[in-house]
Amino acid sequence: MPLRQTRRPPATLGERFAVLDPATGEAFDEAPDQHPDELDAVVDRAHEAWRSWRADPAARTAALLAAADAVEAAGADLAPLLTREQGKPLAESYAEIARTAARLRYFAEPAPGPRPITDGRPVRSEIRWRPLGPVAAIVPWNFPLQLASAKFAPALAAGNTVVLKPSPFTPLATRLLASVVSTALPQDVLTIVTGREPLGARLASHPGIRHVTFTGSVPTGRAVARGAAASLARVTLELGGNDAAILLEDVEVERIADRLFWAAFRNCGQVCMAVKRVYAPARLYSQVVEALAQRAKTVAVGPGLDPRSRLGPLNNAPQLARVERCTAGALADGARAASGGHRLDRPGYFFAPTILADVPPDSPVVAEEQFGPVLPVLPYRSLDEAVERANDTGFGLGGSVWGTDLDRAEAVADRLECGTAWINHHAELSLAQPFAGAKESGVGVAGGPWGLYGNLRPFVVHRPDEA
Ligand code: NAD
Fold it and tell me: Looking at the annotation, which residues are catalytic?
C-alpha cells in the first residue's frame, strides 16, 4: 500500500520552509529559509562580538555554566520538539538534552594557561593559547542538539564566537536551544542560521570564518573541505562510519544480545557509531541471527511521542529511501530477512527492524553506511578473516569485539583500524576522550582537551633570559 509521505525536500513557503513530523510525513511547523547573502552581516557581527568574548576567560566559564543550567531548565520544552522533528523516543530526547548540558559544564573549565617551553636554551619561550575567531558549526539531523553542543561548547570555551547551522530536517529544537543558551551569552556570540543549500556551502567558504567544524556525511565533508580551502580556514570533519562488531568463539550470545541489538538500533540505527555489520563465528551464526531477529521482531516501534515506543521512524524520506534501497539490494543479492525487510504499512517514515542473514560481503548494506534499522550478520571461519573484513572499508570510526576472555578480546580490538574500539560494548563515549575517526571518517580531533585545542592556536612569545 502506498504511504502518505513525500520524498521531496521540505517545500519553500516564501522565506520559510516546512518542517515535517517523521512519524506522519506531514508538515507541522516551519523555519526561516535564510538567504546565503545574509551571512555577511551575521559573520561581521560574530567578529565584532569576538573582541570582548575572547578577552575574559572567567566570564566565559560563568556563562557556560549558566547556559548548562538554562538548557536543563528548558528540557520539558526542548524534548517534545526534538522528538517531533527528529522522530526519536522522548526518553532519548531527554538523554540528548542531558548530554548537551553536561558538555557545556565539561568545557566551562578555564581554558589552558601559558605553558613554558623548556629545552635547555638560555631563552624564555612560552606558549599562550589564542582563539581563532568566528567558527562555523554545521551539523546533521540525527543528534541535532548533542552534536551542536559538541561544536559550540568547546569553540565558545576557547574564546571564539560561533555561527551554527543545523540540518534543514531538524532546525526547530536547535533554534530553541540556541535561544536558551544565548540567554547566558553576550549578543552575537552564538548565532543560528537556518535554511536550505547553498546556505551551508556559503557558510563553510565564508572569508570571515576561521574554523569550520562539520559533522555529516563523507561526500559533504569533502565539499566543506573544498569550500574552506578558499580562505584556508581550519577544518574539523566528523564523518560517517561503517562500524563492525566481531563476536569471538567464547561469546555468550544471550548475555550480550540486548546490548548488541541496541548498539545497532538505537535512534533507529541513525548513529554514526552504530554497529553496522556483525561478524559471527560460523559455529554460532544461526544462534546470533535468531537472538537478534527475535529482538527485532518484538521491539515496540511507533511515534517517539508515544511512551511505549522504543524505536521511532527514520528522520526523513530520502533516508527511508536509502535504507529501502540497501535492503532491497541485499535481498536481490540472495540475502534472507530473518526479521523485517520492508517499510511499515503506516504513514510516516517507519521501516521494520531488520536482521539480514546470508548477505554477500560486497552487498551495499555491508559495503556502505545504511544509517537505519537494518543489520547484516555475516559468518566467518577464522579470526584473521574477520579482522580483515572488519577493516576492509574506507571508513574508520569505531569497532567492537565481543567475548568472555577480555584479554583475548582486547588483543583483537587492538587490530581494528578505527578511532575507538570497545570490548563487549559499542559507542559508549566519555566527554573527556578524543573523538577522531581513522581513514575517511574524519579529519582533526574533537572531544576532551583535544576538542578545546582544536579551537585554539598556539602563540609563542620568545625572549632571551637577559637584555
Ligand atoms: P549531510 O552531510 O547530508 O549534512 C550534514 C550537514 O551539512 C547538514 O546541516 C546539511 O544541511 C549541511 N550541508 C549539506 N550540503 C552542504 C554543503 N555543500 N556544504 C556545507 N554544508 C552542507 O549529512 P546528514 O545526512 O545530515 O547526516 C548523516 C551523516 O552524518 C552520516 O554519514 C553520519 O554517519 C554522519 N554523522 C557523523 C557523526 C560523527 O561524529 N562522525 C555524527 C553524526 C552523524
Answer: 238, 272
Is the domain of 21 the same as that of 168?
Answer: yes
Asked if the structure places residue 430 within a domain, the reply is no
Longest dimension (CA), the chain: 85
What was the pLDDT predicted at 14? 53
- For the segment 86-128, what is each residue's pLDDT rounded down to a tens digit? 999 999 999 999 999 999 999 999 888 899 998 888 899 999 9
The predicted structure's pLDDT at residue 120 = 87
Q: Which amino acid is at 396?
A: G
**Are 170 and 266 part of one and the same domain?**
no
Stretches in the chain below the pLDDT threshold 50: 1-13
Q: Where are the beta strands (DSSP E) in 306-386?
A: 336-339, 354-357, 374-380
Could you tell me the CA-to-CA distances from 102 to 63, 75, 146, 288 in Å, in that order? 14, 13, 10, 36
Look up the CATH number of the domain holding residue 11: 3.40.605.10
Is residue 235 domain-shared with residue 247, that is, in the same domain? no
**Ligand 1, CB cutoff 6 Å, lining residues:** 138-142, 147, 165-168, 197, 200-201, 204, 215-217, 220, 223-224, 238-241, 272, 369, 371, 397, 437, 442
CA distances from 5 to 154, 321, 446 (A): 39, 12, 37
Atom of ligand 1 nearest to the CA of 168: 11
Distance 221 CA to ligand 1 centre (A): 7
Task: Quote the ligand 1 centre to 252 CA distance (angstroms).
Answer: 37
- Closest C-alpha residue for ligand 1 atom 34: 240
Q: Are residues 346 and 266 in the same domain?
A: yes
Same domain, 192 and 127: yes
> Residue 206, SS3?
coil
pTM above 0.85?
yes
Q: Which residue among 213, 220, 273 is best mutated to probe the pocket of ligand 1, counting the most ligand atoms within 8 A of its Cβ?
A: 220
C-alpha cell at 127: 606558549
Distance 141 CA to ligand 1 centre (A): 8
Supply the pLDDT for residue 454: 97
Q: Are residues 249 and 174 in the same domain?
A: no
CATH number reported for the structural domain that contains residue 295 in this entry: 3.40.309.10
Tell me which residue range forms the domain holding 58.
4-239+437-462
- pLDDT for res 4: 32
Give the burial class of 464: count Cβ atoms within 10 A of its Cβ; 0-12 exposed, 13-18 middle, 19 or more buried: exposed
In one-letter notation, the amino acid at residue 123 is V
**Closest ligand 1 atom number to CA of residue 227:** 19
| CA of 219 relative to ligand 1 center, distance in Å | 9
Nearest CA to 396 among 232, 241, 277?
241
